[in-house]
Each structure stands twice: as C-alpha cells, then as structure tokens.
Amino acid sequence: MKKIWNISLAVALFVGGVYVYADEDEREHARPMQSKPLSKQDQSAAALYKKECSACHMAYQPEFLPKRSWDKTMKGLDNHFGTDATMDLADTSTVQNYLMTYASKNERITDMKGAVALRISQTPHFVREHREVTKKMITQPAVKSIANCNACHTKAEAGSYREREINIPNHGRWE
Amino acid sequence: MKYLSVLLMLSMSLMGASPEVEQYMKELLSAAKAENKSFTGFDAARGKEIFISTHIGKQGKPMSCTTCHTVNLGNSGKNSLTGKVIEPLSPRVNPQRLTRVKEVKKWLKRNFVDVYAREGTAQEKGDVLTYIQKN
Lengths: 175, 135
Prior knowledge:
The complex is a heterodimer of chains A (175) and B (135).
Chain A: H1 2-11, E1 18-22, E2 28-32, H2 40-52, H3 67-75, H4 89-102, H5 107-110, H6 124-129, H7 135-139, H8 149-152, E3 167-168, E4 172-173
Antiparallel strand pairs in A: 1-2, 3-4
Chain B: H1 2-15, H2 19-35, H3 44-52, E1 55-56, E2 62-63, H4 65-69, E3 77-78, E4 85-86, H5 101-116, H6 122-133
Antiparallel strand pairs in B: 1-2, 3-4
Helix pairs in contact in B: 2-6, 3-6
C-alpha cells in the first residue's frame, strides 16, 4: 500500500520538491525530482497556487487528488468547507489549470466508487494509512484537524511524508 | 524637496495605506454617498462596531471579525476554522497590510460573508478600513 502513495508522489512534478519512495524491503529514500524545468508560466502558476491556497491551511500537493476532485473544489470556492474562499476569475482559472495539470492519475489511490472526494483525508487509501492515528492525537489543540498535515508531517509543506519525519505533538516520533 | 518626501512618507505611514488603497477608499466614498444620501464620511467608531460585534455568519453560528483577528489588531490572530496563525491586521505593526487593493477586496468579500452571511456595503467597508488604519 505504502508503495502506491510513494510512486504517485514520485511521478509528481513540484518545484524544488523532494519526494519519497520505498523499495522492496520498505526502506525509505528521498530523491530529488527528475522533473523537467518548469516554464515561466508554470512557475508563476505554482507560485499563485501556493500563495492563494496556503492562506488558511498549508498548500496541499495536487498529486493527492484526481482531476474530478479539484474541478469540484474550484467550482465551489464560495462554499469551501463552510467558508468563502473565492478569488477573481483570472486567478481562479490559473489555479484550476495548475491543479488539473498535476492532479493524481492513479485511480487506485483516489477511487471513491463513483463519489467525488473533496478531502484528501476522505480517500480510502488515506484512511487506511492513518488507521493507527488515534482521535485524541487529531483533536488536541496543537493539531485540531486531520487536514493539518504539517502538524504531524514536519516536511509536508515541501511535499515529503517520510515516516521518520513524523512528529506528533504531545506524542512524539512515529518510528 | 528632501523634507517634503520625508514628510510625505511620514504622513503615508501615519495613514497606514498605500496610494492604491487611498484611491480605493475614494471610490468607496463616492459609492457610499450614492447608497445613502445622508452619508457624510467614514467613521472609525462605526468601523469598530462592525469589527467587534457578533453576527450569525455563513455557517449559521455566532461569529465576529475578532473571532479570527482578536480584539487587539496589533496581535497575531488565529483562523478559527483551521487553526492557522494570522499575522496582525494593524498596518502600524504589519506594514504589508492595506497596501494592495486586490488583497483588501478579496478578503473583505470573503470575511464579510463569513461573519455577516452577506457582502459588506461600501459604507461598511470604508468604516471598517478606517478603523483598521487607525489601529
């Protein structure tokens, strides 16, 4: 299971990102992306995504959800998890294109049996990966919500989710 | 000349707003006059009331601007929905604030909807910006 995440992340293109993959015996490695350099336009779209979608929480990596999820999210920003996250039309379409370009293409990790996941934390694969994480670890004030990836994954904002980088507040390292 | 520009910078920092935001305030002023014949000008005291009073917001729950920004604009706040820290709103403490019209418009639209379950009027926006500028 672990491997599926890692492969989908390794395929991802993210500016300056470092992604994780595990080999057969589950040892983890990080390797810099072998990505082609981004065009000027892509760079500015990435910067806009980062700025706009990190105003209220960290900017989640687009690779965690499929196109249909991002499409639905971007069409519903006026009621985004109970808040208004609208921006002007030009910025909305730049961010939408960016998300669509880097969305997950791996059906196995994002399949919702016909339903469209708006939350990464709803996808069955995510739920499985986090089954040992207790409710208490999540609801404590220092974490507050499972959506606060960076409260536990110390390098989440850089796109790295290795086990040894996990540090759960008031609980400690995971290994 | 030198004195003049120093003076200009000083008075700009006292106003706590950039030329583009000052221009936006002028636009709000004419829009407020058009909305309300008896309107005579923006008022920081009315702005404070807009900022600290509680309303039933978008989520159907009591909410106020201070829920996220706290009552002291010089302090950092916290997004009540996500827990993310919000840098101080006061332009005096945080010189980035009220410098870009695009940001100001975007957040006033979002935040009025969150707190008042509707957009703000030109007068409300001008009043609350006047209050923020002075704090």
